[in-house]
């Protein structure tokens, strides 16, 4: 895949469910995947369970630009989901976010 002119943005978000909330968090994440895939500028949005770590999840996202990612994060539906998510996860949402920028050799 070729990066867009501004370079796409990759997000890796790792989280862990509060004890007893594992199935609820999985259902919550499952419901959020398709709407996020349909957001403008989304290249890829995949949810994963961490093998051997019950209740641990990773979401891998790629966006055409940082502006697309920011629009996704500030969308009204995302703002509505935040309080619900905080009831299901350990720690904060921000604690699990890693932003990546691609780079490639020039030759």
UniProtKB/TrEMBL annotation:
Domain ABM: 9-97
InterPro entries xrefs: ABM_dom, AI-2_Isomerase_LsrG, Dimeric_a/b-barrel
Signal sequence region: none
Transmembrane segments: none
GO molecular-function terms, A-Z: catalytic activity
Superkingdom in the source lineage: Bacteria
SUPFAM superfamilies: Dimeric alpha+beta barrel (SSF54909)
Ranges in a coiled coil: none
One Pfam family per UniProt: ABM
Gene3D superfamilies the UniProt entry points to: 3.30.70.100
Protein name: ABM domain-containing protein
């Amino acid at each position: 895949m070729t990066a867009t002119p501004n370079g796409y943005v990759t997000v890796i978000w790792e989280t862990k469910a509060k004890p007893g909330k594992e199935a609820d968090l999985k259902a919550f994440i499952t419901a959020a995947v398709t709407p996020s895939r349909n957001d403008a500028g989304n290249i890829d949005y995949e949810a994963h369970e961490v093998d051997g770590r019950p209740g641990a999840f990773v979401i891998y996202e790629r966006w055409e630009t940082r502006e697309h990612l920011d629009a996704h994060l500030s969308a009204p539906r995302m703002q509505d989901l935040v309080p619900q998510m905080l009831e299901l996860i350990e720690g904060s949402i921000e604690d699990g976010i890693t932003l990546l920028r691609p780079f490639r050799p020039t030759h």
